[in-house]
Write the structure tokens for this entry.
Amino acid sequence: MAQLLSARGFDALALHGERDQRDRDEVLLRFINHSCAVLVATDVAARGLDIAALPQVISYDIARDVDTHVHRIGRTGRAGASGTAATLCTPGEAYRAERLAEELKTPLSWQSPPKLEPVTPLTAPNRTLIIGGGRKDKLRPGDILGALTGEAGLDADAIGQISIQPTRSYVAIARGQAPSALVRIRDGRIKGRRFRVQELRGG
């Protein structure tokens, strides 16, 4: 599904249990950083993910048990925020949906699929850069922010979330400014030191 969406121009990434932990962490970080517009996930994402302001969850099948389905759709509309959860269902699966609704004591709202029309692919507003230094190098978010707004000359509003890990750091940059930020950080210094930097890719 992620490959299909990507082939049609969507910024889509896949999250599943066959990825190693670092890959899963980086995919999720890119989604949280708005460096990915659509996250296609197996039930590995049903539990334990805390994503703020997630506007919509679409299940393209019905979970086999109520708890899993509740955890899936519970990723949206959290802590008083608004959100929509939709589940795609074929007529042959309607009995499973009805059983789910009975167990949840929630009436279903059936809607026919809309007429298929060309859609504009969703592109992410940011890109994520990965810097080869982290807490062990005594880097702090302020150091990276200072390097980007100072020597690199970026506006502060072009810089998104900065995440510092033990040996690497991640920073979200507005899509249009990411290439120049990459070059400027690569050629410049952070806290007087040079660090390897590249755009976080793959998916």
Observations:
- The mean pLDDT is 87.
- DSSP finds six helices and eight strands in the chain.
- The first strand starts at residue 12 and ends at 15.
